[in-house]
Amino acid sequence: MNTPIDPPTVLRDLFDRAVAVADPMQSLHHALPARAQGRLVVVGAGKASARMAEAVEAVYGPCEGLVITRYGYGRPCQGIEIVEAAHPVPDEAGLAATARMLDLVAGLGEGDMVLALISGGASALLVQPAGDMTLPQKQAVNAALLASGAPIGQMNVVRKHLSRVKGGQLAAAAYPARLLALMISDVPGDDPGQIGSGPTVGEASTPAEARAILERFGIEVPDAAMAALNNQSGVIAPDDIRLSRVENVIYAAPSQSLAAAADLARAQGIAPQILGDALEGEAREVARAHANEALAIQADLAAGAAPALLLSGGELTVTRRGDGVGGPNAEYALALALALDGAAGIHAIACDTDGVDGAAEVAGAVIGPETLAKAQAAGRDPHRALDRNDAHGFFGAIGDQVVTGPTLTNVNDFRAILIEPV
């Protein structure tokens, strides 16, 4: 007979394991080469970048450099300067730090090396608007992109052509120095050009493609942004000589975290199935599909059979229609609870591995057969919450939020549905 399990504890343990595997202090040293003999300059940006810098200095000792991370995500470093700035909408701190970073890598020689530490969040933290755009105009563009429901890859095309640092431009500024970029992937498909909008990766898209994306998703941008897109942008072509001494390495990815969670599940007598590490789409629609899959699996489980587990990663989106506070993971969890309609024996967790779902300081939420009953007792209407994009408000009211604080890493969404026989 199988030993009884506590589903909420199991699900949280799985999430914590996925995060721990991607912790730079546990993983980055494997990707570091021997320290360069010439001048070494460490730069970087992202929610994990300060932790990555800390991990670099644990191996190399004190280093010269500057990285930009999200407010609250700083770490103590011996030589590398840590600047905290705003995410997901950029601010003056990010603008000033990015200018200093570009100055830091300028003028390096062939015998020098730049180590770039890039993780999710770098798109907002690396800020140098193109053309005549001001910071408030750049902020307006970012806010409009985030509310549009556009996939992350489409948003990043626009961001690259409205920037002086993305789309390979950071690497070009460091030429002719050698540049090694170590990356934590938070994007579906692990495309280096999409992580942080590819500051060290060549870009083949055009400003016309960026304009088409704005039109497709009905995204309104300031006149200065459109003027910049009507001119030749500064993105660097993949075959540009200034990228000839660049190496981009993804050393931590969602697939590794999902595999670690699956291994932990097997050790507890649970049968995992990984649906994929690169899922995209509207959070509520993916949730409904996963609910149907979970119910079908449960219908085939014999009494006394081992529980089943559906694991998935990727980056879901939310098309903002209401005035609530939410994020793709919490919205997924809410839509999943509604689709399951209190089905016995099915529990789930949906969290962002960086500890921030949307713009809220909440990683995500857990659900179970009792979720809708708890909502009724608390006087909360789950359908109205979904209509208002107020999933965080909903789960906060019933006490089922997952709050981790800064995790110092970022391998995107983590979703797990635990299915017990009934």
Summarize the structure.
Helices cover 38% and strands 18% of the residues.
Molecular structure report:
- With 422 residues, the protein is of the alpha/beta class.
- 38% of the residues lie in helices and 18% in strands.
- It is built from 16 helices and twelve strands.
- The chain has helices at residues 7-21, 24-27, 49-60, 92-105, 122-125, 135-148, 152-161, 169-174, 207-216, 223-229, 254-267, 283-300, 328-340, 371-377, 382-387, 391-398; strands at residues 40-45, 64-70, 81-85, 113-118, 178-184, 246-252, 271-279, 308-314, 346-352, 364-367, 401-402, 413-419.
- The strands form two sheets. Strands 3-2-1-4-5-6 form a six-stranded parallel beta sheet. Strands 7-8-12-9-10-11 form a six-stranded mixed beta sheet, with helices on both faces.
- The radius of gyration is 22 Å and the shape is globular.
- The model has no long low-confidence stretch (mean pLDDT 96).
Could you estimate the helical fraction of the residues in percent? 25-40%
Largest sheet: 6 strands, parallel
Strand order of the largest sheet: 3-2-1-4-5-6
Order of helices and strands: HHEHEEHEHHHHEHHEHEHEHEEHHHEE
- Give the uncertain stretches in residue-range form: none
Number of strands: 12
Shape: globular
Q: Calculate the terminal CA-CA distance, rounded to whole Å.
A: 15 Å
- The helix/strand class is alpha/beta
Continuous helix count: 16
Keywords:
alpha/beta; 18% strand; 12 strands; six-stranded mixed β-sheet; 422 residues; 38% helix
What is the fold's blueprint, element by element?
Layout: H1 7-21, H2 24-27, E1 40-45, H3 49-60, E2 64-70, E3 81-85, H4 92-105, E4 113-118, H5 122-125, H6 135-148, H7 152-161, H8 169-174, E5 178-184, H9 207-216, H10 223-229, E6 246-252, H11 254-267, E7 271-279, H12 283-300, E8 308-314, H13 328-340, E9 346-352, E10 364-367, H14 371-377, H15 382-387, H16 391-398, E11 401-402, E12 413-419
Parallel strand pairs: 1-2, 1-4, 2-3, 4-5, 5-6, 7-8
Antiparallel strand pairs: 8-12, 9-10, 9-12, 10-11
Helix pairs in contact: 1-11, 7-9, 12-13, 13-16
